[in-house]
Amino acid sequence: MTDTHIVTIARHIIDEERRHPEARGTFSDILTDIALAAKVISRQVNMAGLVDILGGAGRRNVQGEAVQKLDEFAQEVIYRAMDHTGYLCCMVSEELEDFIPIPDKFPAGEYVLVFDPLDGSSNIDVNVSIGTIFSVYKKITDQERGSLRDCLQPGRDQLAAGYVVYGSSTMMVYTSGSGVHGFTLDPSIGEFILSHPNIRIPAARLRPYSVNEGYALRWDPGVRKFVQHLKSGLESGEAFSSRYIGSLVADFHRTLLRGGIFLYPADANNPSGKLRLLYEASPLAMIAEAAGGRASDGRRDIVDIQPTELHQRTPLFIGSTDLVDLAESHIASAGDSDVALADDQPK
Ligand code: AHM
Ligand code: MG
Fold it and tell me: From the CA of 123, which ligand is nearest?
């Protein structure tokens, strides 16, 4: 007999809760329900390549059912897994403009779920990894079915955050503050199994930096100097490799497991960057911090930003702490001496 134990995600969540008696049972049920939704989405994502054969969005599949776009499907699966459980007062999704109060026909609870049901969905057609991102807050007002104020909380107040990456395997990674844990879906038994306990961002020898350099001429001088600095090697002589998938969850997952930095800075066309604070940057920032890393908008910690709108964007620098610090110091020190760099910006 081996002494290797198989730990399912449900088992792990219960064990975590025992270590944190202040966490309530409902809270672990929310994570278990998200894991269930992730399995349903994963099954559908794995079928994506067959959509043209079995019927594309707006058409009918072989069973004669209407086929949805995958991101709409993911939105509905998560919503339907969570709307009736009595744990949530409201939800926020990238797919919907307003926050979604739990309907009156169902009991309302004390938590808020924010999520991006299927991030990077433009990658589906080319079979590149995509992901789901989520986080959980406690309701702070006395509104039974939540209010905008309950949704607009800084990342510092997240109770749990996680993501699911639909890649060569499907993995769910989450933190409830004490450590970051990764689970790989075994499709043959339909269970997420603990495969990556206590993830820490490693200090690897050859770390990747990850950014869409196609926009480099539109970056601020500080960002350009920072990336240039990485390319020419740090003072320590450390060399970097470049990796960019163009799918946030996949790029972040690699950064978490291999170290390095992922950045999506502001640029001349997108003065606040592209990524969304509430359901993209903040959850990943909580995970990065719990794994010993950092996340910044270039000037301050992501988790300290007080959101003012549900779909607000933010620049994002996330990964190994030393590299996020370095990015911040280049941005802070970019000034008149950078005119030469700024001069070749596209007019
Ligand atoms: P989406 O929310 O519309 O899917 O866009 C977010 C995605 C991220 O997954 C990824 O990091 C980024 O867009 C890539 O953008 P770009 O193609 O500009 O590099
Ligand atoms: Mg998204």
Answer: 1
Residues 6+ apart with CB under 8 A from 86: 26, 106, 107, 108, 109
* Site to substitute for ligand 1 among 75, 166, 248, 316, most atoms within 8 A of C-beta: 248
What whole-number distance in Å separates Cα of residue 161 and Cα of residue 288?
10
Q: Is the CB of 131 under 6 A from ligand 1?
A: no
> pLDDT at position 47, please?
84
**CATH T-level assignment (fold) for domain 206-344:** D-Maltodextrin-Binding Protein; domain 2 (3.40.190)
Helix (H, G, I), strand (E, B) or coil at 101: strand
Threshold 0.90, pTM exceeds: yes
Distance from Cα 339 to the centre of ligand 2, integer Å: 34
Residues with Cβ within 8 Å of residue 212, at least 6 apart in sequence: 244, 246, 264
Phi, psi of 17 (to 5 degrees): -65, -35
Cα–Cα distances in Å, from 163 out to 57, 202, 241, 285, 312? 25, 19, 25, 12, 20
- pLDDT value at position 343? 40
| Homologous superfamily of domain range 9-196 | Fructose-1,6-Bisphosphatase, subunit A, domain 1 (3.30.540.10)
Residue ranges per structural domain of the chain:
9-196, 206-344
Q: What is the pLDDT of residue 341?
A: 41
Cα separation of 265 and 197, whole Å? 31
Query: Is 212:264 a contact under the CB 8 Å cutoff?
Result: yes
Point out the residues of the chain with pLDDT beneath 50: 1, 53-55, 61, 63, 336-347
Q: What is the end-to-end Cα distance of the chain in Å, rounded?
A: 69
